[in-house]
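Q: What residues go here?
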């Protein structure tokens, strides 16, 4: 099973990124507590080591919030 790398990145104008669906739609889905919510962010720059917050691996409490990964 894959690991999940948790990062904290500034999504500012000086770094090129693309997000789908949009941030607004993702927030609405979160507020509405929709079961299938999320977004893909394509970040077109190097990710600094200082931006890595955590690495979740199978068996960790946070990892279990993504049950679909168990099928991989």
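A:
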């Amino acid at each position: 099973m894959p690991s999940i790398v948790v990062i904290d990145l500034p999504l500012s104008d000086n770094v090129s990124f693309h997000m789908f669906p949009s941030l607004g739609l993702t927030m609405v889905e979160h507020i509405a507590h929709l079961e299938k919510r999320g977004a893909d962010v394509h970040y077109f720059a190097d990710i600094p080591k200082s931006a890595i917050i955590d690495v979740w691996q199978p068996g960790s409490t946070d990892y279990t919030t993504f049950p679909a990964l168990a099928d991989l």
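A: Context that may help when evaluating the design: Residues 4-71 form one domain. Residues 22 and 39 are 8 Å apart (CA to CA).
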